[in-house]
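User: Reviewer 2 asked us to show a designed sequence for the structure in our supplementary figure. I'm pasting the structure tokens here. Could you produce the per-position amino acids so we can include them in the response letter?
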């Protein structure tokens, strides 16, 4: 019996060592996917396309994992975008408005053609589901990099 208990404890300890990092992905339900391009994101960001657009269903859905400090560039969506916070601590900002802090269970509607950015807090990663309708003019218009000054402007 004692040998069984020791083996069980060793197994629990080994499993705990293989959990994902504290980047908001500890309870992730989807894989990280592919690394997002540096041309449109700052820091380490992963994107897993959950639903690809096609002729019958034109609302792509992606699962995005932001490591701490990572964020998108400023961008807009002709069809708008919905963000569902899945874990960690995220930031979201529309042009001319203050940064909003996002936590698991929060939902954000990004209005069509409004420049905005989103990403993780400086110390805790963030995961989100992004629902971005495809339109005849495309899904996203990338703008410029979010400066460190803009990113660190959170009013506490």
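Assistant: Here is a per-position design you can include in the supplement:
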């Amino acid at each position: 019996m004692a040998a069984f208990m020791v083996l069980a404890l060793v197994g629990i300890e080994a499993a705990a060592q293989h959990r994902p990092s504290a980047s908001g992905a500890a309870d992730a339900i989807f894989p990280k996917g592919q690394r997002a391009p540096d041309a449109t994101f700052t820091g380490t960001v992963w994107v897993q396309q959950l639903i690809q657009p096609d002729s019958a269903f034109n609302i792509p859905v992606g699962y995005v994992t932001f490591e701490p400090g990572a964020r998108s560039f400023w961008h807009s969506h002709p069809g708008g975008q919905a963000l569902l916070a899945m874990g960690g601590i995220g930031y979201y900002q529309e042009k001319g408005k203050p940064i909003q802090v996002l936590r698991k269970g929060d939902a954000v509607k990004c209005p069509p053609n409004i420049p905005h950015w989103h990403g993780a807090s400086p110390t805790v990663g963030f995961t989100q589901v992004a629902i971005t309708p495809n339109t005849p003019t495309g899904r996203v218009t990338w703008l410029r990099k979010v400066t460190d000054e803009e990113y660190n402007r959170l009013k506490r």
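For the response letter, you might also mention the following. Helices lie at 2-17, 148-151. The first strand starts at residue 34 and ends at 35.
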